[in-house]
Amino acid sequence: MSQVIIGCDHAGYQLKQVVKKQLLSLGFEAEDFGTQNEESVDYPDFGTLVARKIDKGEYEKGILICGTGLGMSMVANRFTGVRAALCNDLFSAIMSRRHNDANILVMGGRVIGSELAGEIVRTWLETPFEGGRHQKRLEKFSEF
Ligand code: RB5
Fold this sequence. Notes:
Helix content: 40-55%
Largest sheet: 5 strands, parallel
Bound molecules: D-ribose
Number of helices: 6
Distance between the termini: 36 Å
């Protein structure tokens, strides 16, 4: 069973619970790094837990959820091996895999509903990276 690592802050907690169930129904194992309730926490604390593990190659794919998705994407993208994509729509989810080989999907729990989030998660996990010219572009990331 493939594993997906997941984390959130208080604003993403409700959606994280929904996404976890969905991951199971899709045949994925969800490794949950919190938070575990709606008490106020700082999103960098949970974002770094997940991003560090992706950066180290311990997991291939992760999901982060905060209120807008903005804070979590900013935090996660500070790790050099992370390509975190904020996708609150389906087109971005598809393209973030095809062209950017995103390894962390970020969503805003206060922006999208659970039905849309479910479609985004399923699509993101199913969509392969196209490689080719896009691989060459990703390689340029390590030049700076
Ligand atoms: C928490 O209130 C909120 O600021 C956080 O979830 C996130 O949206 C930050 O980018």
